[in-house]
Amino acid sequence: xxxERQQLILGAIINDYIRSAxxxxxxSISKRGDVSFSPATIRNEMADLEELGFLEQPHTSAGRVxxxxxxxxxxxxxxxxxxxxxxxxxxxxxxxxxxxxxxEQVIQHAAMIISNLTxxxxxxxxxxxxxxxxxxxxxxxxxxxxxVAIVVTNTGHVENRTVTIPQDLDMSDIEQAVRFLNxxxxxxxxxxxxxxxxxxxxxxxxxxxxxCEGLLRLIEQALTPESDSRLFMxxxxxxLTQPEFKDVDKVKTIFSLLEETPAMLRLFSAMPSGLQxxxxxxxxxxxxxxxxxxxASYTIDGQQLGTIGxxxxxxxxxxxxxxxxxxxxxxxxxxxxxx
Amino acid sequence: xxxERQQLILGAIINDYIRSAxxxxxxSISKRGDVSFSPATIRNEMADLEELGFLEQPHTSAGRVxxxxxxxxxxxxxxxxxxxxxxxxxxxxxxxxxxxxxxEQVIQHAAMIISNLTxxxxxxxxxxxxxxxxxxxxxxxxxxxxxVAIVVTNTGHVENRTVTIPQDLDMSDIEQAVRFLNxxxxxxxxxxxxxxxxxxxxxxxxxxxxxCEGLLRLIEQALTPESDSRLFMxxxxxxLTQPEFKDVDKVKTIFSLLEETPAMLRLFSAMPSGLQxxxxxxxxxxxxxxxxxxxASYTIDGQQLGTIGxxxxxxxxxxxxxxxxxxxxxxxxxxxxxx
DNA sequence: TGTTAGCACTCGATACAGTGGAGTGCTAAT
DNA sequence: ATTAGCACTCCACTGTATCGAGTGCTAACA
Lengths: 339, 339
Prior knowledge:
Chains A, B: Residues 1-72 form the Winged helix-turn-helix transcription repressor HrcA DNA-binding domain. The structure is a homodimer of 339-residue chains. The first copy, chain A, is an alpha+beta fold and 339 residues long. Chain A folds into 3 domains: 4-78, Winged helix-like DNA-binding domain superfamily/Winged helix DNA-binding domain (Arc Repressor Mutant, subunit A), CATH 1.10.10.10; 86-129 and 228-328, GAF domain (Beta-Lactamase, 2-Layer Sandwich), CATH 3.30.450; 131-223, Heat-inducible transcription repressor hrca homolog, domain 3 (Enolase-like, domain 1), CATH 3.30.390.60. Chain A is built from 12 helices and 10 strands. A 5-stranded antiparallel β-sheet of chain A has the order 7-3-10-9-8, with helices on both faces. In chain A, a hairpin with an 8-residue loop joins strand 1 and strand 2. The longest helix of chain A is centred in the N-terminal third of the chain and has 17 residues, at 4-20. The first copy, chain A, is elongated, with a radius of gyration of 26 Å. The interface between A and B is large, with 42 and 42 residues. The structure holds a DNA duplex (30 and 30 nucleotides).
């Protein structure tokens, strides 16, 4: 529906704006090598593009700025993806295949690298509990009536919490229960863990005594995952380097959103899997109405493990970020989770 | 060395400035109930106080602002500590004695509360490895040649890292080694762990085979603690609400310091134990030359476990923060670490 | 008919002078 | 020793003028 020339001009404007962060005028577009029309012609097209909703004018005598719709069109049709240099991509890829660490850590480090390369903020959402299975469970007594409960999942993720042991429980009973758990529940998805715990326990119940009550509650408590541990961010201060955020108040609203774990989880759960771009007001959250969020889900052996997201101003370098995130698109060959 | 009246006036000025964040003039001091002198008299005293280095003047016709030295005198001699309400203190105290969680978590939550109450940033430095002993060590195989190494200390702190198992190692050998470790090294301070590992292993060496080489290196790797895990912060964005930090560049330098773990560790290690106040340029780090850092070490059963710090502008409410941190001064009755 | 040169116009950014007021330092009176 | 009075300083604010980048429109042009 846009003419060739309109596309050319729209693309030129957005590319310029991404670089300069300042409204771009007809003159500067005309001086570019790739658009060989006079400023007047370009002005006409700009007026049309504005009428169509792709551009906006901060005030009458200023240049044009892309609108959310403009960016959207750009991302969908115009953008060149080869904006990331091959050496950058190689650096991340080699890092991902280095196999030095646990999957989650590798992803987090990779996100950190991207955040450094792009000067945007990166957010990693760890594996959903649906996609993790119990690998190992352990209770380490700490003296007194406290113990540390440790849950290791098949992705190598370790979660721990301190629990209080009811006084009427015997240590040997607990040890037996833990051994039983590891035997029977290893490999069970975290989400099903509790129901399986109760059903399995029910069968054995007859044999063991009735203090199982307290024991069960203890274990249930120990198995409840903390939701914040799924979120990992890096480069949050990069936001401060972006010229559009030199106003402290804007920064504050964004930061408070980032700090609010449940809101972030909601935000991410609204993103479908695969590579996804949410531009400005397309995000349901007002605090980031002037930001864009690009997410990519990463999978290992076909199993969707989590999501990595890049948050930056709407004027963000979409091509670059998308090609960088593309590294995660193909099935990663990281530490293979035990089946 | 300061006269009674000078102290009164200095105190009044600093208290006013802490509230208003704006240079305070002789008139406003004179109008306060507690200082019954005319503006002229106060002006004279102010000029003297400035000459002595306790006050500063942003420009000729402005009011006075406390200098680092002024704050120092205030903290050492003038400040009233009862600035925190008893109900606030009680809230924290009851929280600390709730015994619901592991010591470290309790401290972190308490720090969070203080940070919310004061609108400053709180930083918790976890137990030094000198003060932690091994409680339990475990290797959980993950499939492939990876395993998660888990170290539990007597403070209930859990640390984990993923390690690669050399192919030539037998699983049963590893299990035996882990059992051996838990028997022989439980209770050994983390700092001595490695040397003890080698000495103990040396004795047993004769009996076991010579693949100990790889095994030892594996365990050594697993026992090396991550230094970042000792730092915990909350309320970092509170900095943005302080009027002195409406300049983004200042905020940026502070944030980058906060993100730089080693620098933060250095900063904290420069603070002696007990309650400590570092005002403005007294901090060795330029980035926080306009900030004050108040730290308190917390001890449990006489054992120094870590440090809690509050970072705010030099114009911070010292009395309030110090009295809030005072809660940690007395020996805490938290989860008692196993002896 | 599509393109472009020309021109009047708009409007933010910048610079500058003027004003008001908060605050000071000094002096003289109490 | 204290304070009232006063001249002085200097920032913050306001209004005005200017500049220039950029626009929209019209008329000429290929």
